[in-house]
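ok so for the tutorial part 2 we go from a plain amino acid sequence to predicted structure tokens. step 1 is just haveing the sequence, like this:
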Amino acid sequence: MKFSGLLTGAVSGMAILSLVACGGEDGEAAKAASANSAGGTECVQLAPGEYYWDGSSFVVSGPALPGKADTKPRSTAASVPAESGWAAELERNFPDLGFPWMGLHAREPVAVLTGIAPDADARQTGFSAGEAAVQQNAAASGVTLIVDGISLETAEQPAQNGPGAALATLIQKGASRQTCQTAFNETMEGRTILFQSNLAIVSPTSQSLLDALTGVALLCDDHAIEIGGHTDSRGSNDYNEIISQQRADAVREYMIGKGVDADALTAKGYGESRPLDPAENYEAWAKNRRMEFKVSGRR
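step 2 — the prediction. this is what the tokens look like for a chain of 299 residues:
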């Protein structure tokens, strides 16, 4: 979808009621527009280029190329501009640092670096550079957690991407019970928090995942959040209940240490009592060893 004119939207409160493209390739404004209950419409000038509709807004997918439209949607989290202020200013500087594909979303005390990196090395280098830029920016002093939400062009499954993409979406949408639950679910999709064998110590390989989950909890701690630990069926019932409780407690303590309100978090070890797959094989055991996050009403 290409636009080189104006984008018209009727806005009521915080909700976008409609979005209409005014103008086209010839620069003539379209007559179609929507008015809100307060009267009037709002037009925003868009640079020439190609856009797609993500369900709530138009998102840039590429520059205008005569006769050729890019129909492949890009990551919404990577494409939506950063918030105004220091985050937007830092994002504008990323191309000068060599990372034109990198974006930034922030809602204190959390910041998420997003984008689609060409390879794993570029992703790691970009995240390190972006992290340093946020840490060195005086205006970002309220940010205490910086999360990796960078995806890979070559990723074949979600777990290969940075775990912070759902957190970036949460920053944009706001922390309702539903958006918080969705953020936890999408962050955990295809991923698992790994622990050292028979211990309640999180593996270093799960650090970025735990940080992303902590970011969700920081934005959602007006709600009650249960951290549920689950094991497979190997070992005694008593042992499995104990280790699952210890691991849930470890996640809770980590989140509290990062600033999540302790009163918002409860930890519960379920042991082997709630398997997702009752089979007795390695595939089922791997599926049943998990952490679950459940968001309930406001506290």
